Fold Type II secretion system protein GspC N-terminal domain-containing protein.
Amino acid sequence: MRLSHYALALTIILLAITGYLAWEAQEEAKGARKELELVRKQQAAHEMAMPAKPEVVANLPPPPEVPRASLPPLAGSDLMPGTPAAYPSSAPAAAPLTDLQKQLLGAATYAKVIEVHNEQGFAVINAGKNKQLTSGMKFDVRRGNGLVGRVIVGETIEAAEAVVDIDGTVTLPGVRIEAGDELILPIKK
């Protein structure tokens, strides 16, 4: 009879510990969500405090056309023999892409950066549990045909958003991850 009492007491203690750990995890998740909301509110307040951007005039009238006959001859044209060409007749060809740039451009976009907090060392991306993200996953960050850094998925993963930590050991000096940058699976160099 005594052995069953010890087993019952041990079971109750284990249930209490498990319940406490589950409650603690929920509280930690609530704290992370509140911190994310606070950062978003601070960013919104910062954007509201910024001066309004000047409006761009979309419909400018086209420049007046000048008849070709009234233009003076240009240096390098066949109208002025013996002068060197000031401007090449065609635009310079773009440099060929490297193998790494081709690999970067060919990689599928996994997610995009929607918010960046470089001072705090994290960013928010537009993928979460909907793309089976798990804590600790690593992604390279691409802008155009260049690699700008690496991020690691943190603990806060919601349905369609997640917080990622910026890996400062991989980010190039002077280069910052920006909103709109794309996350791709790590490139093998």
Q: What stands out?
A: Strands lie at 111-117, 122-125, 138-143, 146-157, 162-166, 182-184. The helical segments are 2-49, 99-106.
